[in-house]
Amino acid sequence: MTDDLFASGGETGRLMGALDWSRTDLGPVAGWPQSLRAAVRIVLSSRYPMLLLWGPRFTQLYNDAYSALIGDRHPAALGHDVRITLAEGWDVLAPLINDAMATGVASWVPALRLLLNRSGYREEAYFSVSHAPARDDDGVTVGVLTVCSEVTDQVVGERRLRLLREVSVPAGTALDDVGQTCARLCDVIGEHPLDVPFAAVYLRDGAILRRVAATAATPPALPAEIHDQDHWGVRAAAATGTVQVTPAGGRIAVPAGPWDDPVEVTLAQPLPSAGPGEPVGVLLAGVSPSRALDETYRSFFALLGQQVAVAVRTARAYQEERARAAALAELDRVKTDFFTNVSHEFRTPLTLMLGPLADALADETAPLDPVQRERVDTAWRNAGRMLGLVNDLLTFSSVEAGRARATPAGVDLPAFTRELAAVFRAAIERAGLRLVVDCPPLPRPVAVDPEHWERIVTNLLSNALKFTFVGEIRVTLRAGADAVHLSVADTGIGVDPAELPHLFDRFHRVHGARSRSHEGTGIGLALVRELTRLQGGDVTVDSAPGEGTTFTVTLPWSAIDATGVPDAPATDPMTTARAAVREATGWLDDHPADTHLPGPAAEILVVDDNADMRAYLTRLLTAQGWSVRTAGDGEAALRSILADPPDLVITDVMMPRSDGFALVRALRQEEATRRLPIVMLSARAGGESGAEGLDAGADDYIVKPFTAADLIARVRTGLRLSRADEHAPAVQPPAAQPAPAAADAPPSAEPRGAAESPVATTSPSPAEPRGAAGPPSSAELPASPESTVPAGAAPVAEGLEAAGSGGRHRAGREPDLPEVDVVWTYPLEPSAAAAVRRDLRAMLPDDKIDPDLLYDLQIATTEAVNNAVEHTQAPSRPHVEVRLRARDGLIRIEVQDFGTWRARPPALDRGRGAVLMNAFGDVRVTPSPTGTLVTIERRWIT
To answer: Where along the chain is composition biased (Low complexity) (predicted)?
Structure first.
């Protein structure tokens, strides 16, 4: 009978069958009532954890599933009092069991927390529990039937997930700094002490790990800074990127868990960086004494560390972005202040320029002759243009700084707008366009700032004229129900949709857009928007490529109400409009009369989109006896050159349609113009722009403003290049002849650096006609024996042969030179050319050598150095050496590189260097496996 009762109970049933129940309160199995037997069968046959408590001592009978829940308390719990077996949790269980027995009503608790000591420590566990009364054969409640399941993993997992979710919120919030972010994270973590009894965030600060935040329960024993190895594993976790688990060892006394047991273990979790680098810091946390540090708990800490790391990295990114934004704002403020201060400083000298210039033009007592009047008028117009630019910058900087204010005055807005448009009529019609003005009277008076309105209309009309080549410009003013609308529409080139959002950005330019001029500050439309907003309105744009553009200024009636506003004074304030028209007129003068001189004078083409600059250069060059023709942009210049090539081209860099760089590249691609000398002019200062021009293929590069002497000297050198290129005989170089070595001279110290003069000036000389070439002669300096030219050096050697033996006997005073023998070493970089020019000028001052000779010497040496920089590859030494020797009227330059020769592409190989070097003297190339030596020699005799 005993076997039948426990037979279906598995291992626990076997143990129950072997137990001597006579020694328990239940007595021998044979004497058990039928109700108890039935209850035992139910328990043992169930696969769900079930516990039967029977009798006044709550004797335990349970199944296999329940035995797994009580851990090492099984099998000792069988047949014993539950109050002893689960003594640590009885205070929680007793009310439920007693209630079921007293009332006879079953109960259910979905997540009952129990303190269990089933694995060697006081464990936090959760169970879903139901207690039902168990009755004997007489129907009296004598026990409780408990059905339960453990939900510890579910409860703890949901709790930890909630913590991770809450921690992730500050990670995406733009906080003030990293410290505040970490403090908020610790506040969140501190609200979950069951899983993280305490936590502290340590971040790297150089070689130190500094505690930046901690939870409220963090023990004072945790160090604020960690320099070397520590007892907490923080330094090791930061160094290795691995988790460090450390026994507390009595160093801290932090009560934790549901029953305030002391923390016995700490965990140092690395905070990973975004990439493969070292961790950004370490999260030091206490481990709950009520939970085992198993893989699940470790995974939770890893996820928590990742969330904290993300929050820290995000906060740092925000902080760095704010710092960058603050730096940009400060830079913007400084720039605005600079514009303001500089513009103010410009006004005084501009006033002192404009006043006397205007007086000179208006002086009837001592009138200017036509030549002087043209010069003064050019200066007056451009000084006025500069004043307009200064005023625009002042206005814009005031707007940017928030200092600008509109000063409304009652105006007849339609009449004022018509007058402003009328100022532009002559220029617009001269451009072949039609101007339509439709500004009927408004139904009521309005008040605007007259100066601001003038700038708004002027900038919109200037913009329309600049980008419209056919059709019309239409100015319309209309009264709407809520606002007054001004529209300036044109039939110009239009704007690509991608550019429209940026059209009102300051300094924004639409690259590649066809225009009448490339000049301008790039703030015109930005100023229109800001001034319109100061009036209480706004401006919009509607455009499509090839269909024109319409700007619409909208002023709400409420913003321009004239009630109580005084009328504007009866003056003629349209100075801004008239200055803009004068500038626009210069755009239209695309074909001024060319100046051709009779005879074989050299012919120069001047390319510039500024009419005043074209006129000035024409006067300057024709005064030297050269013939000049002009073009207004790169496209027109290219057509003119291909139709009739000049001797030299002077071109601006920034021009509409086709700029100077595009022109140079186009000319270098044509065989007929590949060797045409080109001088570039640019307002862009800096070595980078000059290098860009020379790389594009220009022969010289001049930065504005320049002197007349500077330009004339460069042009004269370019014309020399043109003559030598056209008439140099293609002769073979003379055979090398042994010669005695030059007498050794003691090496002199490297000359003290001096500021480079802008350019060696030359005295005016007669016009240099095409084809005028000096007679060649042989050089008389001792020469080193030359070796065979290797294949890699062929381009330069052939160029020198084609240029011929260009040494010259120069008539004139013999230089009073001391003996010089000096060697300079420069890095193999483009800057070497400028450095050698400076050193030559310092070593050979103007009072010791003819300025023309010095200039030619600088040009020749610079070309040799440039060749070394451009053509040397795989150098054994990244330098170029330049040796200058002068004795008894003989000058020798030796330029030595230390690599193999790299040929220039044929399209760029114009022979420019060879011609310029031969224009100074005899040139020899001495290649060797270790480098190439270029020798340039010149005798200066009377």
So the answer is: 738-751, 771-787
